[in-house]
Design a protein that fits this description.
It contains four helices and four strands. It is α+β, with helices and mostly antiparallel strands. The chain has a domain of 61 residues: Ubiquitin-like (UB roll), CATH 3.10.20.
Length: 103
């Protein structure tokens, strides 16, 4: 009710009263924000091979660059584009993407 109140105040006041709460909804305390509950535990990264997105991988939030590279290169669609070719560079942009350049 508290979160809907700014959009539909009259309906929320009526529902608040029918739920058995004393006083008006405007006197109720706003819900507290919990930063730990809002934090993402994993992140999805795009994997590029020669500038084209070839796959996506999900890695833990605190994964190292080596772990991210290993998961990206193990992705089946990425592996088929890298297999048998010389890897020139592999760049990890934390929280965004993995870019692989091959010849």
């Amino acid at each position: 009710m508290l979160l809907l109140n700014p959009f539909t105040p009259h309906v929320c006041e009526e529902m608040w009263a029918r739920l058995g709460h004393e006083g008006g909804l405007v006197h109720a305390a706003w819900p507290a924000f919990d930063a730990a509950a809002a934090r993402e535990e994993s992140v999805e990264l795009a994997v590029q091979v020669n500038g084209k997105v070839r796959g996506r991988v999900v890695v833990p939030q605190g994964a190292t660059d080596e772990e991210v590279r290993a998961r990206a290169l193990a992705e089946p669609r990425v592996a088929e584009h890298v297999e048998g070719r010389q890897m020139v560079k592999c760049v990890v942009v934390p929280g965004r993407l993995v870019s692989v350049v091959v010849k």
